[in-house]
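Researcher: First entry.
Model:
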Amino acid sequence: MDDKKLQAPPLSLLDKYRGKDFHPLYTTTVTVSGGETGHGRASGVARSDDGNLVLDLRLPTAFGGPGGGTNPEQLFAAGFAACFHGALNLLAKRAAMETADNVVEVQVSFGRDPMDGGYALVIDLRVRMPGVEHRVAEELVRNAERLCPYAKMARQGTVNIVTVVD
């Protein structure tokens, strides 16, 4: 067992990147396979390429499904909350603030989109920073919104590469 204390990421991650092309720092792959397909929603098993994530996907009871597993909205909310929490903590570290009690809650609603008649997600992000002055907390949250790639993606969209493979 490794007795080393977990190290926070370096503050150099806050430095601006000046390259002209996207520069990946980490890449992962999650594959979903199996499950039922008749209801048009995710089911089966999601597995990460390193084996650290293995989740059963199930249709939520709100859609008449059995529940007992997770769904895409929960996965997105978890990723968004974790990323935003990390960005907030990194910024607090740069400001030499102790923020161990920060809480980031992300609510994702799946529903019908009145713009095109299809589907859309609505994201409600709430941050609690006990012991931090409200004005300071608001500034940290605004800066975390600019730093967190999930917040950026929700605001601006993202590059999507869709390929059909044999």
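Researcher: Second entry.
Model:
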Amino acid sequence: MSGRRRLDWLGLTPEPERELPAAVAALRASGDRTAETPTPGTRTPGTRTPGTRTAEELAAAERRRVERLVLRGTRHSWLRYLAEVTDLVTGVAAGTRTGDPAAALLAGEVVLDHHRMLIGLPGPGYGRTAADRTALESAVRALRTRTPSRTHTHTRAGGSR
């Protein structure tokens, strides 16, 4: 291969870029002490504790991170990011991490679909994500049993569920 960067990993599906930031921000917020987590009766509406970030700010920060990875990252850095997301999802599914099961389910489905599609690309990506695929399959099954039926489901490339 020439000195040119391989970009085939970018063309898999747009769902990770579109759907992960808000879901991942929600999952990170559940374990982030700087995130605003309102407790009924503890604050007046419209006020924030200094140093806290709103859900919108957290989602915007996650969107910027994904954008940097897509525009300047490598296949390796992208898969490392998705491994972080896998850890968040599996933690919520196992009950070892607090978090919104619906956000975890959405993130798990998106990453699992992404990892399954790696089989069509050259290189070691599919093999490298085998353990994550197995963990995500189990986590998604567990989260589906705990998550109320959603009115909007994640749409897989090539069809809907």
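Model: Note on the second entry: Residues 69 and 107 are 17 Å apart (CA to CA).
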